[in-house]
Model the fold of this input.
Amino acid sequence: MISYIKTGKSPKTFGSGNPGTANVGAELGKIYGILVLVFDLLKTGLAVYLAWRLFPALRVDRLAIIYAGLGVTLGHNFPIWLKFQGGKGVAVAVAVVLLYDPLIGFTSLLIALAVLLWSQYLALGGIMILLADTLFGLFAYPTQAWVIMLVMTVIMAIRFRSDLVAIKNKTQKKVDLLKRFKKAQ
Done:
């Protein structure tokens, strides 16, 4: 929506072709990228809130959160109106892990950030948020929640498949966030 409002075009027609925060921000400007991020987070929060209110039986083990997260992930990554070619779901993943278990989610987010800063590959940081959460969840989450986190991790890895191949082939562009942050000051 942000891209259509700003340019009248689909984000699939510029940059990396991804409708997510990174592409929109890189091509249209930081403000528009931040707007995409905010709407992705709000969308996830709204879905979790509705699931929590509408399905009280799923409040046990906070399963309403994890099921809503899976639903938002599927809708975000494979939207019907974009012919099943959506974003990669990083913002959705961050929101889900933080809402499901804030301590493990925050720890997973810090690990993902460390991997991103070390490797300078956005794809590795994106995948690591769910991978770390899933690994911690193996010991801390109920089986249903852990399996759903694993499914979300696999979806994320599939969505980043071409990036992972490019990393392996050393053709993937690196992003030095620290350098960008210093430049912005």
Observations:
- The CA atoms of residues 4 and 10 lie 6 Å apart.
- The first helix runs from residue 2 to 7.
